[in-house]
């Protein structure tokens, strides 16, 4: 009995010491700020923060869990927009609101986590450092915690910083794809032959052999594009702004053959686990290309390809594959909008 009393006294002493140390030496809430820079215009960056559907696609807090379920509430972006979420696997839920918006300058978020009635307040400020560079500053105020929960404040800032670091990496990929698409659309000059230097790309797709009779080839391309798109978006969970335009690769002069072999894929930022053996990754090496943009029937592309080949022969250049980049997704019984790129070298 005496031993039990001694143990009880020791426990009470330790609990009391812990409570006193938390009360006197640990703040009941934390205030800190984090600064990051990103090489994209402020308007494009801001739209990824004030639209919560965009926000949850790249923010690591939401993106890292496969079991999280998110509901979005009107107006979906800007002041007054909100989401609620629940994550049964990680036993957490909460609500997030945008309480204030000054376009391209400031946002204020309120985040209620689990059953805590006091929100985390986050002010985010955006500053254009140049036409293509933005500084983002987070001002974070965490909710007040009871004495016994204040120990959480020792790692709150570190967790927040880690989440932002991972989120920014994903945001750069998202904006890179969006800006690349916008730039390509703005630069299109149809039926004009140009020379471009292409950067390395990583494609996830499938190898196919198909008949070249009448419209059979294009129907086959549409079918296999849909297979790749569905795998990337449904099985891998990628959103449209997380990857580039679909690309088809084939021999330059096989348009005359009865059967055509090709690879059709979607550009991704990095390799990941693929569970379906029908799909594989292919790296497209950096190259110099002769390029033409074409819009019309898929069969009509042959004339543009012939022009690219004739140009290469005239310039005494050797040539390799033709890359067909679909600026608009291929759809059956519709014209195509494609970028034709012939790889050339001495």
Q: How would you sum up this structure, described in words?
A:
The longest helix has 34 residues, at 153-186. The chain has helices at residues 2-25, 42-50, 52-58, 60-63, 153-186, 216-235, 301-314, and strands spanning 31-38, 69-73, 82-87, 92-102, 106-113, 120-130, 133-141, 194-198, 201-211, 247-251, 259-267, 280-284, 287-296, 318-326, 336-345. Helix 2 (42-50) packs across helix 3. Helices cover 32% and strands 35% of the residues. It folds into two domains: 26-185, START domain (Alpha-D-Glucose-1,6-Bisphosphate, Chain A, domain 4), CATH 3.30.530.20; 194-345, Multidrug-efflux Transporter 1 Regulator Bmrr, Chain A, CATH 3.20.80.10. The strands form two sheets. The chain has an eight-stranded antiparallel sheet with strand order 8-13-15-14-10-11-9-12, with helices on one face. With 346 residues, it is of the alpha+beta class. The chain is elongated, with a radius of gyration of 27 Å. The termini are far apart.
Task: Provide the descriptors you would attach to this structure in a database record.
32% helix, membrane, 2 domains, 346 residues, eight-stranded antiparallel sheet, Polyketide cyclase, transmembrane helix, Multidrug-efflux Transporter 1 Regulator Bmrr, Chain A, seven-stranded antiparallel sheet, Alpha-D-Glucose-1,6-Bisphosphate, Chain A, domain 4, 15 strands
| DSSP summary, beta strand count | 15
Estimate the mean pLDDT confidence. 83
Indicate the CATH architecture of the largest domain: 2-Layer Sandwich
Number of helices: 7
Q: Which descriptor suits the 3D outline?
A: elongated
Radius of gyration: 27 Å
Strand order of the largest sheet: 8-13-15-14-10-11-9-12
The main pleated sheet reads as: 8 strands, antiparallel
Number of domains: 2
CATH class assignment of the largest domain: Alpha Beta
CATH superfamily of the largest domain: START domain
Category from helices, strands and their pairing: alpha+beta
Transmembrane segments: 6-26
Keywords: Membrane, Transmembrane, Transmembrane helix
Domain Activator of Hsp90 ATPase homologue 1/2-like C-terminal: 39-174
Protein name: Polyketide cyclase
